[in-house]
Amino acid sequence: xxxxxxxxxxxKGLVMALEDRLGNEGYQTRAAYDGIKGELEALSGTYDLIIxxxxxxxxxxxxxxxxxxxxxxxxxxxxxxxxxTNIDTVMGLKLGGDDYLTKPFDMQVLLARIEAxxxxxxxxxxxxxxxxxxFGPFTIDYHRxxxxxxxxxxxxxxxxxxxLEYFGRHPGRIIDRQELLDEVWGYDSxxxxxxxxxxxxxxxxxxxxxxxxxYFQTIRGAGYKFDPAPQE
Length: 232
Fold this sequence. Notes:
Layout: E1 3-8, H1 12-24, E2 27-32, H2 35-44, E3 49-53, H3 61-70, E4 77-81, H4 86-94, E5 99-102, H5 107-128, E6 132-135, E7 138-141, E8 146-149, E9 152-153, H6 158-169, E10 174-175, H7 177-185, H8 193-207, E11 216-219, E12 223-226
């Protein structure tokens, strides 16, 4: 079995199609048809991935994802929705989503996204172990998937955390934007390198004064460099 997937989607025809195809691909599935039941199932069950619609009865997918992250549920979330605006995409990622696919979609594309999200998540879990790294007032707890500032948890979304984790594994190396797209976003998407800059700006705002960069340096024409021990 490749893994267990929770499908939170109110279109029963789509759920049946997903369950059939995912079952044929070696996944075990379970379904919930509204946001409240889906959230309760995600909190009570052990899943490798959650496919989450946004436009759900009783509680929308954005709120479900937000609540799960607040309860320290780190199961990867793939948003599946009829919405397609950049605002919705950013909102989904900001609330802790790991990927985003717009309806209608090709089933092969969905399968590729699922495999990429699972591969990325499992690799991160394997790397994480019990490691803890510190720089300045910050501590990255890879086991808990948590960032602390002066001992207090720092609120970060899933994508910001993955960016920091990737830089933390490659201190002092210049990393270009395409590498970040490939390794952090994790698939060959149409996402532009400008998106990387937007998320890097948000990450910097969490960790330092953006106008006086201390840990993250922009290397013009090359990318970004993370220095956990900058010179005073």
